[in-house]
Amino acid sequence: MAAEFLKTHGIDLQDEMSNVQFPATSTSKPTSDIPADDQRISRKRIHKIVNVKLPCRDPERTWDLSLHDNCIHSIDPHDPQGQDTTGALQILYGNGVFLLPSLCHPHVHLDKCFLLSDPKYSDLSIRKGDFAEALALTSKAKARFTPEDLLRRGRWLIEESIAAGVTCMRAFVEVDTTVRFKCLDAGLSLKQQYRDACFIQICVFAQDPVFSGEEAGKNRDLMEQAVQREGVDVVGSTPYVETDETNMKKNIDWAIDTAIQYGKHLDFHLDYNLDESKNPMVYQVIDALKKREWINRAGDKKIMLGHCSRLTLFSSDEWYDLQRQIQDIPISFVGLPTSDLFMMGTPSDPKDGSSRVRGTLQIPQMIEQYQFQGTFGINNVGNAFTPQGNCDPLRLASMCVGIYQAGTKGDAELLFQCISTSAKAAIGCGNLKAPKLEEGDEADFVIFNTNPSNGRRPKGSLAELIYDPFEERTTLHTGHVVQLGMG
After folding, report:
1. Do residues 32 and 112 make contact, with C-beta atoms less than 8 angstroms apart?
2. How far apart are CA 261 and CA 367, in angstroms?
3. What is the rounded CA–CA span in Å between residue 203 and residue 38?
4. Which DSSP string do the residues of 389-404 spell out, in sequence order?
5. What's phi and psi for 333, nearest 5 deg?
6. Which among 238, 306, 314, 242 is positioned nearest to 274, based on CA atoms?
7. Per-residue pLDDT at 8 exceeds 60
8. Which terminus of the chain has fewer Cβ atoms in its 10 Å neighbourhood, N or C?
9. What's the farthest any 2 CA atoms get from each other in the chain?
10. Which strands, in side-by-side order, build the sheet including 373-376?
């Protein structure tokens, strides 16, 4: 019963969940522009969380967590008699709900999200559904971007993500002669505004060529200015948009040199094709990283390679060879299945359509069989690259059960790692670890009301949450319950 959540002191978990519940079935978006300095976040510090289920522990027991200095101070078996009765502590009462490490977007485009939801871009609808059209429609949209527009759509993405349990994300913002620093300015403003609810890692991103065409030099100059801005964390580039392989290699070399020079992480959109006649550029990336001594010169900075659908054509021997070449270079691969399934599935003969290869990295196999570091993310949401999907990584993980034929309980744990602890590690925001929570871990959690009071079936395992994600959630960031829309 709902009354079981009520206590005479502390915090009512069900009330908190109702305040931050993630409405997956709702497609409505705010219509008013909110000033950038409006405070839309309310936080409540929590000293203790009691009577919750934890992953990778005895499923028949519940646990009490004490928090201190934004971390887990202790984890103990639940003691019904050991609760604070003085009211001095802020206590979150779980009543047997499931608590997990918070979620992460390792790869999401902040500036071009929800273009298909915004009436401003209603004339830019999808007609072909291919990559060339997506680039063209997005270029037209970018020409209309305004600070208010970027902030509005960016808030939609960030707030829906936080409500889903996300407390960390790598957000791409484009820099080129069309938008100049508009997207970056909006991204940095949003990073500051939501700093108490989610860590937003800003990646300045060269979607357009930086070595091919008349604007290339200007694009490169703008990127080099952007990467020096305070609050920028990552250099991102897209070698495959260059006109030829020579310029692709120049793009790769330049991005690596820039990341090393300014002490940034590095992120490439790479090998986004299913053409066996094209040489995979991943080898050029590895070679350039070695020649520039990334391991010795870049400190703790990491490299992410996204899409890489060309690699899905590799034989087993080629995968093992790639792993040997990478050696100790801190490279992670990020699969982007929602975009890959939509972009890579166009048949060679549209009238036939019987053969639709879906080229997306087989992340679980890459991790388990070939020992790569890997994760997956939502990439785009609500635009011509990816019209479908939403901001919930858990729903993506659920879809990946079918994509990867990953249906065992062990698979479920791995899929969860890919949207949580592994994703954070891949972007340099944590250590690679299983979802099992330990003393000393950061107090960033997502809590699922897996014991609903309205008669719906309970869900008692991590696998069940992956198979059928539960919507009622509470997000904690640095030991605080986060509430949104408070401005």
Report:
1. no
2. 31
3. 24
4. --S-HHHHHHHHHHHT
5. -105, 140
6. 314
7. no
8. N
9. 73
10. 103-109, 166-174, 199-206, 232-237, 265-270, 303-307, 331-335, 373-376
Q: What share of the chain is helix, strand, coil (3-state, %, to 5)?
A: 35, 20, 45
DSSP H or E segment with residue 67: strand 63-68
> Is 383:156 a contact under the CB 8 Å cutoff?
no
Q: For the ranges 25-29, 133-137, 347-351, 387-391, which has the lowest average pLDDT?
A: 25-29
Predicted pLDDT at 328: 95
Q: Decide if 444 contacts 477 (C-beta within 8 A).
A: yes
Contact yes or no for 449/473 (Cβ under 8 A): yes
Q: Rounded to the nearest 5°, which phi and psi values hold at 225?
A: -70, -40
Residue 122: phi and psi, rounded to 5, are: -65, -25
Q: Do 197 and 477 contact (CB within 8 A), yes or no?
A: yes
190/223 Cα distance (integer angstroms) = 20
Instruction: Determine the pLDDT at residue 472.
Output: 84
Mean per-residue pLDDT, 102-130: 95
Backbone angles phi, psi at 184, to 5 degrees: -65, -45
Give the whole-angstrom CA distance, residue 464 versus residue 89. 33
Q: What are phi and psi of 480, to 5 degrees?
A: -125, 135
pLDDT mean over 140-150: 96
Which region among 241-245, 443-447, 452-456 has the lowest average model confidence (pLDDT)? 452-456
Centroid of chain to Cα 360: 17
Q: Which two tokens mark 361?
A: 């990295």
CA distance 224 to 228: 7
- Classify residue 8 by burial, with Cβ atoms within 10 Å: 0-12, 13-18, 19+: exposed
Residue 333: pLDDT over 70: yes
Decide which of 348 and 184 is more confident: 184
- CA pair distance 447, 430, nearest whole angstrom: 20
CA distances from residue 118 to 70, 130, 134, 156 in whole angstroms, order as listed:
38, 21, 16, 11
Predicted confidence at residue 459, as pLDDT, reads 72
The whole-number pLDDT of residue 429 equals 94
What is the reported pTM? 0.89
DSSP string, 23-59: -TT------S---TT---EEEEE-SEEEEEE-TTS-T
Residue 182, H or E segment? helix 182-193
Q: Determine the Cα–Cα distance for residues 228 and 10; give it in Å rounded to an integer.
A: 45
Q: Is 431 exposed, middle or buried (0-12, 13-18, 19+ CB in 10 A)?
A: exposed
